[in-house]
Amino acid sequence: MLELYHHGSSACAAKVRFALAEKELEWVGHYVDLLAGEQLNPEFLEINPKGVVPVLIHEGAVIRESTVICEYLEEVFPERPIYPRSAVE
Asked: Which of 67, 86, 88, 77 shows the shortest CA–CA distance to 15?
């Protein structure tokens, strides 16, 4: 089960949602209302002490930062790659 904590206007969260869509992975979303300050709630700060989205949780592992999340998805789910196989591509 992939769980993504995200917000609609976050470009970083959008990058992860695009990766999930390209890889055709199923996920459960947890919308964090940044405008309402939900990222500062103690429950969310336990998941990400920096208080930012996105955050991915997979099999108990907490992965933070959009680029790291995309790299994680690529390694754990190699089908339908999102990165080219060579630097030239």
From this structure: 67
The reply to whether 10 belongs to the active site is: no
What is the total count of domains within the chain?
1
Residue 20 lies in a domain: yes
- Which of the residues 9, 10, 66, 86 is marked catalytic? 9
Q: How far is CA 35 from the centre of its chain?
A: 19
On whether the pTM is more than 0.90, the answer is yes
CATH code of 43's domain: 3.40.30.10
The pLDDT of 22-45, averaged and rounded, is: 97
Q: What is the pLDDT of residues 36-71, one digit of tens each?
A: 999 999 999 999 999 999 999 999 999 999 999 999
Residue 82 lies in a domain: no
